[in-house]
Amino acid sequence: xxxxxxxxxxxxxxxxxxxxxxxxxxxxxxxxxxxxxxxxxxxxxxxxxxxxxxxxxxxxxxxxxxxxxxxxxxxxxxxxxxxxxxxxxxxxxxxxxxxxxxxxxxxxxxxxxxxxxxxxxxxxxxxxxxxxxxxxxxxxxxxxxxxxxxxxxxxxxxxxxxxxxxxxxxxxxxxxxxxxxxxxxxxxxxxxxxxxxxxxxxxxxxxxxxxxxxxxxxxxxxxxxxxxxxxxxxxxxxxxxxxxxxxxxxxxxxxxxxxxxxxxxxxxxxxxxxxxxxxxxxxxxxxxxxxxxxxxxxxxxxxxxxxxxxxxxxxxxxxxxxxxxxxxxxxxxxxxxxxxxxxxxxxxxxxxxxxxxxxxxxxxxxxxxxxxxxxxxxxxxxxxxxxxxxxxxxxxxxxxxxxxxxxxxxxxxxxxxxxxxxxxxxxxxxxxxxxxxxxxxxxxxxxxxxxxxxxxxxxxxxxxxxxxxxxxxxxxxxxxxxxxxxxxxxxxxxxxxxxxx
Length: 501
What we know:
With 501 residues, this protein is mainly α. 83% of the residues lie in helices and 0% in strands.
């Protein structure tokens, strides 16, 4: 592998290491949130709060107004083309998300969601929507300018750590379901303050004030950003619908207790997505730059490495969750263990979707946000149809199956569009190779350990030790094929720098 090809991979490996650590912490803290909800409020109470969080998160998908994705797309290009435009562009991106977020908050407090405890909770947290929208956009700006650490510390660690602690305090103090929902939303304010401060410092270092002030009006940037962001509003809101709508529909059909169990299963399953989050945070601006430079060889190289890492490091987590689903769910409470079938289905569906790699990021960073929005429309429509078809007969397992099919369809559409509409040949087989290795090591160990020890903590520990050890041995032997040399080079660089300091 040439030095020019390895260099961007080393940069991605370095940033991914930071992002992965943050995502791992965020995933663990996300599970901690579900545990706190389940242990303090029970399955029905947890279902109410999770439904309020679902509505908030869906509204946030609209409130962001596509400004976070627009930042990842436009700012790396401006940094090369017109550095003087960075300051005014960042200000307008963050402000736009705040304005749209305020409109969304007005809709939520208007009582459009009827009456009841869920509606009361939604109205109580509605005014945090614009704050969260500006927070997400500000952190996206830091990512676009090369700063992964602020996003990791604030979004992946800070907020997830503060939320379960705040809920525990609120419930201990005698607060009810509405108070627990507000406690979940309050830390967003502190996150925004931190993000704005970090972004201001980063801009002053990356793009100092130019001698000649850039005139934003008439520059055409508003049109470029608007054309890109408009479809992203649809796409982002539909992405959140795809994640959270099943919780709401399960609650409507089967009641809050079922929504609580299913919500817990989805939050535990999201632990496996920490690798995807860590890599996507890093590669999106890299894809944007490589596509802008029309460096197809570089794009294919980075995509191959990212897809290999994604499947190799995430599939073992899902295989363990599938084999020991009752153990994972038992940490929330005994009432949640009967969500085993749903968690197994969610794990299998996630593995299938990840085989496509970061194809969604490639499609978005090519500027074809309209195609991505169309894909999400189809996926959500399919999900809703299947939810009403499956849930009455299969319960929460049917909801998981509907989600898995919709996500697979979304990934397939994006893959076909990148290949035939963009004309990009991406090395998709790299995911299959990584899945084969993960299955032959962790998968086999998990099945054998479950058969010998049953669904117990001992069985899980044995599967992790045996399967994880086998995976490490195989990965080291095939490090060059699996593009792991970049991680090794990064680790050596850290040790060398530490020894010389």
